[in-house]
Design brief:
Blueprint lengths: L6 H4 L8 H9 L4 E3 L10 H10 L10 H12 L6 E4 L1 H13 L5 E6 L3 H9 L3 E6 L9 H11 L3 E5 L11 H10 L2 E5 L3 H4 L4 H6 L3 E6 L12 E4 L2 H8 L9 H12 L1 H23 L4 E3 L6 E6 L6 H9 L3 E5 L11 E5 L3 H19 L2
Parallel strand pairs: 1-11, 3-4, 3-5, 5-6, 6-7
Antiparallel strand pairs: 2-8, 7-8, 9-10, 10-12, 11-12
Bound molecules: pyridoxal-5'-phosphate (PLP).
Pyridoxal-5'-phosphate (PLP) binds next to helix 5.
Length: 367
Amino acid sequence: MKPFFKEYILYTKPYDPSRIIDELYEERDDWIRLMANENPYPPPKELVEAIAREAYRINYYPQGYTLLKKMLAEYSGVDEDNLIIGAGSMEIIDSVLRGFIDPGDKVAVFTPAYTYYIARITVNGGRSLPIPLEKPWFSYNDDLVLETITSEKPKLAIIGYPSNPVGNMPSPKLVLEIADHVPIVLVDEAYYEFSRETLKDYALSRENIVVTRTMSKAFGLAGARIGYALSNKDIIDYLKRLVNPYGISRLSVVAAIKALEHLDYYKKTIDLIIAERDRVYSELKKYSELMVFPSKTNFLLIKIMLENVKNMHIVLNLLEHRVIVRPVQAYGLDEEDRFFRISIGRRQDNDLFLRVLPNIIYGLGSR
Ligand SMILES: Cc1ncc(COP(=O)(O)O)c(C=O)c1O
């Protein structure tokens, strides 16, 4: 180890999200992507045309943040002073950790937790304090949560509302109780449009709650990297010092503005995705070989209940049918590698998945 490296940064595992996918796409590009909780519907034509026009001005630094902020504030029902934009909610989550964590501080996460949280806690010098959700359904045990928090005294808590990879959420009452005891609480509402539940009003009225949101999921702009946070003015002013002022490209700003001009289109795709999620959930529930977790997001967590069958068996078999799903090794899940996660695609994508799945399950079950 080089003497000038920071130890806690060295111990953080680098995250390379797209390597496997990039390799697959080198072979062919007609894969059905059910692995990254993206919106499967393409953007409206006007959005693509606006990006193409803006490309002629790519020699200039980004602009248009003011309009985008105004539109996002209106969409979220908050004042502009209560909102900050970042390069994906990933940048905002990282900034919150960087802004509030001193080396050695504990950060509560509810496990299984989104692995990005854990990586960013470590890289910012914090220590994660895993609070396990209760098996088999990974539900919140309110008493255990409050007991752990009062005895361990974390500096910050991160709550998926709803969470990735499970897709469930704690009660608002529990979140508020956590906020009564923990100096700062980050409520990650990346899937807000699919859950239709928000703690935004508390983020504005309370001292210490930050809600993060994204345009990557419901607005189908994962490739543009637009996230934002809602909170009281003091916290937003503080975060302004941390977020990269030119973190979002000119093209992404235009894409986000155009998306917000086409809210009706996105509302339709959200309705379709929610209806499909509920349909796929009901179909999967018919298999005694699978445990399917109820979800308030655009994905479903599934556990395989067959002896000696691991998630990779299913994942690799699905790949043969061009369907990419995610084997989940999230922090705090079980050690048996039995979980995988599927994002909800278009009806025809989900139909293909549902059609090939029984053969895979029964093929593996009879090995
Ligand atoms: C719970 C959760 N938070 C945040 C993110 C990252 O979102 P963004 O694309 O806004 O950085 C994801 C992405 O999958 C997520 O699942």
